[in-house]
Amino acid sequence: MPTSTVFTTAVCDGYEDLLKESQRAWTIWKGLCQRISGSCLQSRIADDELRNLQARYARSYSALENHAHTCATCRRVVQLNNRTNARIEEAGLSLGLRMTA
Q: Where are the domains of the chain?
């Protein structure tokens, strides 16, 4: 995830907030990983901090995924997206095109 990426959603403020928190946690964790790997800071303290930041990211990402499954608005968006993707795939198959993921 690039640090310059900005996420905005037009549907659910809760999802957008969780998405931003997840990105923030990832950016901090990744930044420390890069700083440590590029220096001689490999110590128990650095390892502990990396584990804490990784856990923070995992929790925030899990909250994001859980929200997408429990929020009625987000579930509806996923359903619409799945239907759209299915229609696109059907249209491609009817034209003899092979859709790849």
A: 13-70, 72-101
